Every structure is written in structure tokens, then in C-alpha cells.
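Bug #2210: C-alpha cell dump truncated for Arrestin domain-containing protein 3-like?
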Amino acid sequence: MAPPASVTIVFLQQTAVYFPGQTVVGRVEVTNAKPVKCEGISMKFECSARVNFSVVEDFSTTKGKSKTERRFYQGQEESYKSKYFLWSDPSQELAAGSHQYPFSFVIPHSCPGSFQCKFGYVLHYCQASIIRVGMSKKIFSKRPYCVNSLLDLNMNPANKVSQQMQGMKTLCCLCCRSGPISATIRVDRTGYVPGEAIVICGEINNASNRKVNYTKVELFMMVTLTGKDFRGISRNKEESCKLMEFSKPEIPEGGDCFWEGHHLIIPPLPASGLIGCNIINIVYNLKFTVQPKIPATPLILTFPITIGSIPLHETFGNFVGGPMPYPSPSPAVGFSEKAGLDTSGEQPPHPSAPMALEDPPAYSVPYIPAFESYPDLPPPSYYRATSEDLQCVPSAPAMGDSSDDDADEQTDFMKTFAPTYVSYNLKK
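Reproduced locally. Full output below:
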């Protein structure tokens, strides 16, 4: 049986991508062919983080015997939750017709950015609900929006520092010992933003009596998830996600290989650290591998990399403005201070009747203190995460339009939502 009304959430900013401190503005559209008995129409904004993983562990029983068991670990955090009424009336009846109710919400500065991987996520979403009289289930619409963490690379001087590492490996085969394989690799700096290129230079010398099968560079995201089991015992799980790689062919015995300023373009990614979340942490590493002919083990050099959302000031001239600019800050629009329910506390005022949104504001650099310091920063673009590991959340609740099932009771998974991250556009 179809619900007696439909509910749709429309964001004023179609990309629905924000930074902490910005305002989420939009409207809730309600259509009902007949009057609906309801207590009101509520709006909820929430950010929650969850992890869910299992580990096979060996332990000793009380009788001293060894036993293997799979144990499950979970973790949950709530960064913010705000709920208020968009509409209510003493008659407890919503008249038939099409209605629009504007909403706005300021994203807290302290919240973590959006993120998802195989075993956990940070999800920002809003939910509009018609609370029907005498009915336990609501008619609702639930929509996610993406929040990008603010990580200014200029705040840490170490992000400007170039990195160089050297390594050497001597191959042995029975009683024979060959010359060494040596590598000197340089990376132009430590901190980058998505869209920038990591510039890799280096020299590999093969003085051994075996060929080197290949040399390659890989960018990895290392995710650490923290959960507790039923006993309250905490455990970490580390996941490695290879984001991109580039390789060069074999090096013959006594040969050399040169990496002369190879550019590795950083894809859209969440900022390092996932600041504000205590159960998920993100770090990035650049791994350079020299692989001799097997059975020899590889020579590996690893560089720590910081991914930020505001680039180093001296690199601003390398960028051009993106095709999808930021929306300027928007106050709550369409609300009447005299209408609606009691507005004491932190609840925004509520409209007593459907009201249309004002015209969208002009576009400009967002009003965020971190961006105010850089008026010459070209605005970036926004792109969905490209890695498959960042697009699937098996434990996240489904997002959908109107339904007779309450959103908190959903058990389906999100099927189409993937975070959208800031990315800067290099000059050609």
C-alpha cells in the first residue's frame, strides 16, 4: 500500500558538498492528495561513525588448551545530532496539496569529514519525517551530504620539506655473493592536496649478477579502525588500500634505471588523520619497490605523505579555478520568527506554513576562517572517490525517499552513495 504522502529533500547546493562551518540549506517538499493527520514534520541532521570487523584469534581455555575463535569488534561515535520541527499545527492535520518547508543547518567545526571503507564509515545525513498521529512508523526521506575535513598544509612546516631515502640490498645464492642493488629516491615534498602531482626522482644501480624484474611506485592509504568486543576489550584493525601505481621495466645485470621527475597525480581523497573521529584514522604512504629476480626479496623505501584540503601557499600559482565553485555562506531563509513552536534553546525557528526558498546566493570563496587567510586561493572542484575501496559501505544504512519504514529501522546498505572530495586543478 502506497504511503498517504511523499517526502523529498532538495539541497540548494546540488553537489551537497560542504566544509565544517558551512551551512546546509535546502527545502523539504511534501505532496499529499488527501489531508494527513500528523503531529508535525521534523528535520534531523546527524553525523555518526561506525566500524564493524572480525578477527580470528588464538587463545587458551581455562583448561590450558589452545582454541581458535572468530571475534567481532564494533565501534560507534556520534559527532552531532540536531532535530527540530519544520511544521506543526494545533489541528494536527496537514492539508492536501504540495508544500515546501525550507531548512538550514550549520555544520559544526569539530566534526570529522565523510569517509567510508569496507569495515567502517563516517556518514553525514539529514532526515525529514512526517510524524503521523497514532502511527508508530513515519513517512520520511533521508539524504546524505558530504563534508570535507579542513586540513591546512601551511600549518605544519614539515609539509614543505623534500624527502630522500637510500637503500641497498646484497643478493646471496648458496656460496655465491653478488654485488649490491642500490637505490636513491627523492620526493619533492611531504604535503599535497588532491589534484597535485608527487614528483619522484631517483637512480637505481644493479651491480648484482641478477636482473631486476621491475621498479615501481605505489600510493597507499592505511586505515586503522578501533572497535570493542562483547567484553569491552578494544582492538585495532589495519587495512591497506592501494590507490595508484606506476612501474618501469627490468634492469639488466650491471645496468641502471633513472626516474627523472615522474609525476604521480593524487586522486580525490579524504584528508589525512580524519580529525574529529576517534575510531577511524587515515595515513598515506608512498612505497618505492625494487624487485630483483625471484626468489630474492624486494628492496622497499617508504615515504610518509600528508594529504590536505588547503595547499601550500607557494603552490597557489600552479592551480586554476575549478568549474564547480563554492556556494557563499547562506543564512536560514524563509523562516518566520513569530511562527511555529517554541524556539527556546538551540532549535531554529519553525515556519507555520509552506514557504518558498529565496533565490540562490551568488558564488564565491566560502566564509571559513581557514580560507579567509588565502584570498588568492583558486577554488577547487569536487569529484567522487575513484577507488572502489572508498565507494562501498556494507554496514551503512540505506538512503531513500518516502517509505512507511522508519529510517532508524533500516537494515539495507547504501548502494549508490560515495563521498565527494575536494580536488585542485593544475594549470596545463
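Output looks complete on our side. The longest helix spans residues 369-372. Marking as cannot-reproduce; reopen if the truncation happens again.
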